Amino acid sequence: MFKPDYDQIVKWVEPGSRVLDVGCGEGLLLDRLIKEKNVHGVGVDNDAKSLDLCITKGLSVIQSNVDQGEGLKDFPDKTFDYAILNDTLQALHRPLEVLLSMLRLSKKVIVGFPNFAHLTPRFYLFFQGRMPMSKAMPHMWYDTPNIHFMTVKDFQLLCKDQGITVLKQRYFGEHFESVHPFLANLLAAEAVFLIKK
Amino acid sequence: MLDFKFNELKLKSGETLAPVTIAYQTFGTLNKEKSNAILICHALSGDSNVVEWWGKMVGEGKPIDTKKYFVICSNVIGGCYGSTGPATVQPFPSITISDMVNAQKKLIDHLGISRLLSVIGGSMGGMQGLQWSVAYPQMVKSVIPIATTTKLSAQGIAFNEVGRHAIMLNPKDGLAVARMIGHITYLSDEAMHKKFGRRQKEGGVEFEVESYLKHQGSSFTKRFDANSYVSITKAIDRFDLAENYNGLAEAFAGSKEIKFMVVSFTSDWLFPAYQSWEIVKALKTNSINVSYRNIGSTAGHDAFLLDDPQLKTIIGGFLSNV
After folding, report:
1. C-alpha span between B95 and B77 (Å, rounded)
2. What per-residue confidence (pLDDT) applies to A1?
3. Cβ separation of A55 and B310 shorter than 8 Å?
4. Low-confidence residues of chain A: pLDDT under 50
5. Residues B217 and B165 both lie in one domain
6. How many domains are contained in chain B?
7. Which of A96, B162, B213, B278 has a beta carbon 3.0–4.6 Å from B180's, enabling a disulfide?
8. Percent of chain B with pLDDT over 90
9. Contacts of A182 (CB under 8 A, 6+ apart)
10. Strands (DSSP E) found in A73-156
11. Is residue B51 located within the same domain as residue B100?
């Protein structure tokens, strides 16, 4: 599958840097970063099958439930150059806590998330009166892993409130086309931020 | 079984063990570059016949494939399977995990291997693996510590002491009691429930769990030496990887070139997962390459010896990428 957010993240990461991928899944992004950018990468996840697959591929992964406050707190400050949280923030119970510890342990943080204020879910909610579902969000409200939906605007406000510096931001539409920041909250299906604190 | 003999071993206590015999076995073939050697360290009551006690893991076509790797397993000093121990030297001096590893190091030198592809072990075997990574970091490319710790908990020491106390009262029956206690600590509530429940032997004379423990206890006395049991459990109790350092992170400061994979099991209450996490934390503080898996299992501490598909996958997968 073509992942515009992966491409963007790979572009942003400096070659040879130290990278932590939180919620690394089966390690697709980590694998690309190691192959294309020669990074020293570590993944964190709590899914046994994904972790075993990563280890079999030769990736370094650490089993930890970051959502329960485990794991990240034990990494010293600025251990990494980049900490990545892609398509995971909206699935966490304590998104802010995790985000702040990532900003502590890494010089820069890359966050990618689906924009809930995008036209399609907006129309879905408006016309159908039901929680939006799509290819990217295929779950019913009661069994979705995504429990903290937010919008581009929400995230920008959060950064402002928390004194987080937004270094770069990129937005993509439903067909992976680039979206201008001015209209991002309406037209972006996916957002990727490079931030630091 | 092969014997490697050398003149003396300086022990941590300051005493000298002399002469020393290391009984060991090897499986597979050492390649020309001598780069495919794996040292497997056995646990408290184990021996060098690793293809027997870890048959699901080690052998041809197994995750630790003896067609690919040259596997070495030696009996620890202090034991009763051919290496120098209380049955051969009297009185037998007090030994430590680092003494066991120093003896193994002499064997590896003797075999002409300058760098082991991996040191792998569970429980006390894991302690030895960790000791290798700190004492001889340049000689190991990777370490897989499984269901282990850098220092035994008070609870672990307590169980060992009950066993030793029973042995002091009566070596033979005491050893059986020590083994029975051991077996309780190697299982878990759920494992015992699954394995025995409240089922009784025919005639309702006793519960199945009772006859299981009795059998384990009495058969152990036929294969193990009570003095070895005391000597080795003391070594386990005293082990503290960080004792000469200012904290565990400092202990690993020289181990930066080693790749680690730390493994624990969710139901292991003798070597709980938090102890493995301490290792991961200290390694990460040094930016050392480490993977960590806390495998979901109901089998307790024994899980590492059983046929666990996840453990097999990650050990095979990890080794092929070292």
Report:
1. 8
2. 44
3. no
4. 1
5. yes
6. 2
7. B213
8. 98
9. none
10. 80-86, 106-114
11. yes
Look up B35 and say whether it is catalytic: no
Domain end (from B209, B235, B261): B235
Q: What is the β-pairing status of strands A80-86 and A18-22?
A: parallel
* Same-domain check for residues B99 and B245: yes
* ipTM for the whole complex: 0.93
Do B148 and B158 share a structural domain? Answer: no
A61: chain B residues, CB-CB within 8 Å: 291-292
**CA atoms of B210 and B203, how far apart (whole Å):** 14
Span between the terminal Cα atoms of chain B, in Å: 29
Place of tokens 């931030």: A195
Considering only CB atoms, which chain A residues are within 8 Å of B314?
A: 51-52, 55-56
Which of residues B235, B254, B289 is at a domain's end?
B235
Catalytic one of B142, B188, B301, B308: B301
Q: Which residues on B lie below 8 Å from A63 (Cβ)?
A: 292-294
* Helix, strand or coil, per DSSP, at residue B26: strand
Is B287's CB within 8 Å of A75's CB? no
Q: State whether B147 and B69 are in the same domain.
A: yes
Question: How far apart are the C-alpha atoms of B46 and B78, rounded to whole Å?
Answer: 12
Question: Average pLDDT, whole number, for chain A?
Answer: 93
To the query of whether residue B3 is one of the catalytic residues in this protein, the response is: no
- Spatial CA neighbour of B233 closest among B287, B164, B135: B164
Nearest CB to B285: which of A18, A64, A76? Answer: A76
- E-assigned strand segments in chain B: 2-6, 9-10, 16-17, 20-27, 37-41, 58-59, 64-65, 70-74, 118-122, 142-146, 259-265, 290-295
Residue B48: active-site member: no
B229 and B306 part of one domain: no
Whether residues B46 and B85 share a domain: the answer is yes
Catalytic residue among B74, B123, B142, B267: B123
Residue A157's pLDDT is 97
- Tell how far CA A192 is from the center of its chain: 8
CB contacts, 8 Å: B284 with chain A: 62, 74-76, 79
Residue A17: count of CB within 10 angstroms of its CB? 18
pLDDT, tens only, B124-173: 999 999 999 999 999 999 999 999 999 999 999 999 999 999 999 999 99
**Domain CATH code at residue B9:** 3.40.50.1820
Q: Which domains does chain A have, with CATH numbers?
A: 4-196 (3.40.50.150)
Distance CA B221, CA A71 (A): 43
Contact A58 B321 (CB under 8 A): yes
Residues B143 and B31 in one domain: yes
- DSSP letter at A125 equals I
Segments forming the whole domain that contains residue B214: 154-235
